[in-house]
Amino acid sequence: MTTNNVTKRVALLIASVSSFITPFLGSSINIALPAIGGEFAMDVVYLSWLVTTYLLATAVFLVPFGRIADIYGRKRIFLYGTVTFTLASLLAVLAPNAHLLLLARALQGVGSAMVFGTGMAILISVYPLHERGKALGINVASVYLGLSLGPTLGGLLTHHLGWRSIFMVTALLGVLVTILLLWKLKGEWVEAAGEKFDLAGSLLYGCMVLALMYGFSKVPQASGFLLLGLGIAGLLFFIWWELRTDSPVLEMRLFHHNLAFTFSNLAALINYSATFAVGFILSLYLQYIKGFSAVHAGLILVFQPLVQVIVSPIAGKLSDRIEPRLVASLGMGISALGVMLLITLSKNTSLAYLIVCLVLLGFGFGLFSSPNTNAVMSAVQKRYYGVASGIISTMRLLGQMFSMGVVTMIFSLYLGGVQLAPGNFPAFLKSIRLSFTVFAVFCIFGIAASLARGRLHGQEQKQTPNH
Q: How wide is the angle at C-alpha 215 spanned by C-alphas 369 and 23, nearest 5°?
C-alpha cells in the first residue's frame, strides 16, 4: 500500500506514545512501591513481584504475539494490546487488594506484549528506508523520555494524588492511542498471511520462562532448584524444537555460525540482567533507609536516565565510525564500575556518592545500548531485521526478569516474608550489597561477551537461516 505523510506521522505519534507509556509506568511504579506496600501491608518479596509479574507476562507473550501479528495483521494486534493494557490500568486504579493489583500487572504485561511485538514493525512498514532512521530515533527518544519523567512525575503523583493516579495517567494515554488507532491510522500490515503459527513452540517458550522465573523466587527451597532444572531442560527442548519446525515462533538459525549476532544478544542479556533492578533497589533504599519522600527519591533517580538520553544518540553515531564492540564494551566497563561502587552502600552513604554512581551507570548504559543494537542489526541481512529486532527485545525482557529474579531470590534469603521495618534494615542492607556484588560479576562476563563478538566494520554479513 502507498503510505501518505499523514499515515506516517500518525504511526510515529502512536508508536512514540506507546513507547513512552511502558518505561514511564515502570520507573514510576518503582517510586510508588513503598506507598503500595504500606496500603496493602505487602512484604518486600511480594513488592518485587509487582515488577516481575509484568515483565514475566510480557516476555512469555512477546514472541508469540509478534508472530501472530505477522500472520493476522499488526494493526489489529496492536489495537487489542492497547485496549488490554488500558483496561488493566483501570483495574489497577480500582484494585481493592494486592492480589487484584498483581493480576492487573499481569494483564498489563499481556497487553504490552501485543504492543511491543507490533509497534516497531508498523513504524518500519510505513516509513521508507531513507526516513526510517529519523523515525526510529524519535521513537527511542520517547522511551528515554518515559524513563526520565517516570521517577519525578511518578513521585509527584504519588505524593499529591496517591499511587493509583500513576495507573490513571497510563490509562488515559492508552485511551488516546486507541482513539488515534481507530480514527486516524488507515490500512493494515500483514507480512505472513496464511503461514502456520507455531503453537507448540509458543507453549514451550512460555512454560520455560515461567519455570525459570518462578524457580528463582523459590530458591533455596528444593522446589526452586527443581523448577530451575525444568526451565533449563525446557530451554534446550525449545531450541531443539524450533530448529526442526518449518515455521518457528523464534528463528534460532540466525545464531548459527554468526558470532557477532550471538554475542551481541548475549551481551544485551547480561547488561540488562546486571542493571535493570538497580532502580528498584535504590528506590527502596532511598525511601526506607534514607527516609526520603517519593518526590525526593524520584529527583535523585532521574540522573541515570537523563544521562542515557544525552549519551545514547552520540554513542549510536560513534558506532558507525568505530567498531560497535569497542564502544559497547567501554559502556559495559563503565556500568561495571558504577555497580561495583554501589556494593559499599550503607546507611551513611552520601547523596553525592550515590549520584556519581547513577551518572556512571547512565553513561555506561548509554554507551552500550545503541552500539550493541547497531551490532545486532548489522549482523543480519535486511530481510531478517524484524526477526533480529524481536530477538533483542526478548533478550532485554529476559535480562530484566533475570535481574528482578536475582533480587527476589536474595530478598527471600535475607528477609523472608516480612515487611520492611527498622528492625530488619541491617538485613535489607546486606541483601542490597549482595545483589550489587552479583550484578558486578555479571558485568565482567558482559564485557567478555561484548569483546568476543569480533569485527563488524568492513565485513559484509551473510548469515541466513537454512531451512
A: 30
